[in-house]
């Protein structure tokens, strides 16, 4: 409770401090005028753009119901939870410095396993004086993947694709700290490179953190809403040679309610697919863990198609170990029935803005996920590749630029793995009510 109150107090204090700086010009009559905006949160800034702050947030309330492989005994279970409950504070100071602080009060967000308290999704400072190059420092998710680059507020399906579960470390900070250099060249090229120091559940033997390196490059010769051609490549690598860690490669297969990392889920009856690896993997078992990702997207008017392919290799470091390999991909089709195009900013898709304020915008989508892993160690030594296929069919209603109501039906089929009841397939649905400001 103390941490929660402190986080709220800190955010309020910072907002007041920054606003006091910004208002100094008006008070003394020798500074820039102040502009206040209330659409989409509270934003205050000086007309010379030297100082600003914006207070916003997002709330995502989910309900899901599922059966078959998604539960241990195959019977129907459900889950209702806050997927995210963010308070966000960001802005500019002294023209060339930007900051962003996002605090999640939800017990079910991310994978931080903080069941009793919220956590800082982001707390970063960036230097923008080398425009168009930006240097960011602090806690933030490193670049890896098109869907990850798109805010959780505006991803098409309620949960991102299952292929990300194969490399859950690649685009997550896991409570670590890092530095990233990103920039654009012209209107069609984007690139980033970063390093982050973090601890994957267990400390390295000598107390030295695990270092992770990320690279992302994007080429988008067509880069306007409703007229997009996007190609990208990603690479991430970390060293596990002196680290004991949870080495399981697992997936919820689009149904987060089986295990939300914070309660309000299916409890002990929730079944989460294990494709490879083992918990409590000892130090010295594996060496380099690397992931390569390819991404592509095309949009014309209200129609868009996008996909990503990811491959991962965990190199064995001990004589009695074999390499672990995993591959996954997805393809997604989306169409806005009311005619609006998805916004696009270099490197990522953004929101759909309803043209009709009374009707809102209606979007339908289908996504196919395919993931597999090969592990000839331990429990998986005598098992052929574990593979899962997931079909996602859904609809989103953008009532306005703040409210989004959506849901999707999920159907999955698993090869070479079952639940305790012998089920190798399952289905369910997820609905979400979202408000952003």
UniProtKB/TrEMBL annotation:
Keywords: Signal. Residues 1-24 form the signal peptide. The keyword Nucleotide-binding does not apply. The keyword Signal applies. InterPro entries: Porin_dom_sf, Porin_O/P. Pfam families: Porin_O_P. This is Porin. It comes from Metapseudomonas boanensis.
């Amino acid at each position: 409770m103390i941490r929660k109150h402190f986080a709220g107090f800190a955010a309020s204090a910072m907002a007041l401090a920054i606003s006091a700086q910004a208002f100094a010009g008006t008070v003394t009559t020798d500074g820039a005028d102040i502009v206040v905006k209330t659409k989409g949160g509270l934003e205050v800034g000086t007309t010379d753009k030297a100082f600003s702050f914006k207070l916003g947030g997002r709330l995502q309330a989910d309900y899901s119901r599922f059966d078959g492989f998604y539960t241990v005994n195959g019977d129907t279970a459900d889950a209702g939870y806050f997927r995210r409950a963010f308070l966000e504070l960001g802005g500019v100071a002294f023209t060339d410095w930007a900051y962003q602080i996002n605090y999640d009060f939800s017990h079910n967000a991310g994978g931080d396993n903080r069941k009793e308290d919220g956590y800082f999704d982001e707390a970063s400072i960036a230097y923008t004086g080398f425009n168009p190059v930006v240097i960011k420092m602090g806690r933030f998710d490193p670049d890896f993947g098109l869907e990850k680059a798109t805010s959780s507020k505006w991803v098409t399906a309620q949960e991102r694709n299952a292929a990300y579960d194969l490399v859950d470390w690649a685009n997550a900070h896991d409570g670590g700290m890092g530095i990233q250099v990103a920039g654009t060249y012209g209107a069609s090229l984007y690139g980033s490179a970063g390093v982050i120091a973090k601890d994957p559940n267990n400390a390295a033997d000598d107390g030295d953190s695990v270092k992770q390196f990320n690279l992302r490059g994007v080429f988008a010769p067509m880069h306007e809403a409703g007229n997009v051609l996007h190609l990208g490549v990603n690479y991430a690598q970390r060293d596990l040679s002196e680290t004991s860690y949870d080495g399981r490669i697992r997936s919820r297969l689009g149904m987060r309610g089986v295990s939300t990392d914070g309660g309000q889920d299916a409890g002990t009856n929730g079944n989460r697919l294990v494709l490879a690896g083992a918990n409590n993997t000892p130090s010295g078992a594996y060496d380099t863990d690397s992931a390569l990702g390819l991404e592509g997207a095309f949009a014309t008017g209200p129609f868009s198609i996008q996909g990503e392919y990811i491959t991962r290799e965990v190199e064995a470091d001990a004589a009695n170990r074999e390499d672990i390999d995993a591959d996954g991909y997805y393809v997604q089709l989306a169409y806005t029935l009311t005619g609006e195009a998805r916004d696009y900013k270099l490197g990522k898709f953004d929101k759909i803005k309803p043209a009709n304020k009374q009707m809102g915008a209606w979007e339908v989508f289908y996504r196919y996920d395919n993931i597999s892993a090969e592990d000839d160690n331990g429990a998986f030594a005598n098992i052929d590749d574990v593979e899962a296929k997931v079909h996602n069919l859904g609809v989103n209603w953008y009532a306005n630029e703040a409210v989004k109501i959506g849901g999707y039906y999920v159907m999955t089929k698993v090869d070479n793995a079952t639940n305790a009841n012998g089920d190798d397939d399952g289905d369910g649905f997820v609905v979400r009510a979202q408000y952003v400001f």
